[in-house]
Design goal:
Elements (H helix, E strand, L loop, with lengths): L2 H8 L30 H15 L8 H5 L2 H4 L4 H4 L8 H5 L6 E5 L5 H10 L4 E6 L2 H14 L4 E5 L12 E7 L8 H11 E15 L4 H4 L2 H5 L6 E2 H11 L2 E7 L14 E10 L2
Parallel strand pairs: 1-2, 1-4, 2-3, 4-5, 5-6
Antiparallel strand pairs: 5-8, 7-8
């Protein structure tokens, strides 16, 4: 299926957007935001990820996941699943999942983090993946069936309107997806709503140290590259706290010796974010 076929088959009549590849961590160059109405950004992103799902295009090189996750964690999955990821970190290890826990993955994509989580929570636990792209959902569901996971399900939905009941989740994970949302306070509020009292979050995402210039924030290419939508790190922390979370911690991914003060100003970086609902 070609890019044109996908775009023609799924575009709304009043919002025609040609699917193009994106730059930065996810590759390519979409059009400037000036040529796309604000309500078209979500559709542009959805079309892009549909293409990724159909072509099995991961974010980076095949060995990129090995730099994010412990090798033994990935070895339990087939190569086509272990090597398909659009993430920027490892929210699974940070989450310290326990047997029997209910886990919610925001922007579950092809399902990699869901499958890793499912092994940790066991048959007595449950994992729900949320994604807005039908092609990603189909890929994830097919993979879950092949793997024989009975404790994983995938639901269509948006981060700003999570299709889950109040207070039923022990742990929320997400991997380089919250930066794509145009309404992050609503995402944080939905996360808080979905968690049980005492529930926790484990997030990998792109954040910035220092404000991004307006020309970057308004550039659709930068949105697709996980840049324009990145929150400044203090905004991310403050947004979670405003939603009601406590014990909020944000740490650069990688060298354990790295501290925030050593990150240069006006820099984008992959961070691990954890917090708890009181």
């Amino acid at each position: 299926m070609t890019r044109k076929t996908i775009a023609e088959g799924r575009q709304k009549k009043d919002n025609e957007i040609a699917l193009v590849s994106m730059s930065g961590c996810c590759g390519g160059q979409p059009p400037s935001a000036e040529t796309i109405p604000p309500d078209g950004i979500r559709e542009q992103v959805e079309l892009f990820y549909a293409q990724r799902a159909l072509n099995s295009d991961s974010c980076c090189a095949e060995d990129y996941q090995e730099a994010l996750y412990p090798a033994e964690m990935l070895s339990a999955l087939p190569d086509d699943m272990a090597n398909f990821s659009l993430g920027c970190g490892d929210p699974i290890s940070m989450a310290e999942l326990k047997s029997g826990e209910n886990v919610l993955d925001l922007g579950s994509g092809g399902g990699l983090d869901c499958f890793l989580a499912a092994k940790m929570v066991g048959e007595s636990g449950r994992v729900i993946g949320i994604d807005m792209t039908p092609e990603m959902l189909e890929r994830a569901r097919n993979s879950a069936q092949k793997l024989g996971f009975n404790n994983v399900e995938f639901r269509k939905g948006y981060l700003e309107e999570l299709p889950v009941e109040d207070g039923g989740i022990d742990v929320i994970i997400s991997n380089c997806v919250i930066n794509l949302s145009p309404d992050k306070p609503q995402v944080f509020a939905e996360m808080y709503r979905a968690l049980k009292p005492g529930g926790r979050i484990s997030i990998s995402d792109i954040v910035s140290k220092g404000k991004l210039p307006d020309n970057v924030k308004n550039d659709m290419a930068a949105w697709g590259a996980c840049i324009a939508g990145a929150l400044e790190m203090d905004e991310f922390i403050g947004g979670l706290q405003a939603a009601g979370f406590v014990d909020v911690y944000l740490t650069p991914r990688g060298n354990a010796e790295t501290i925030i003060d050593q990150v240069p100003p006006n820099t984008l970086f992959s961070a691990g974010i954890t917090a708890r609902k009181p």
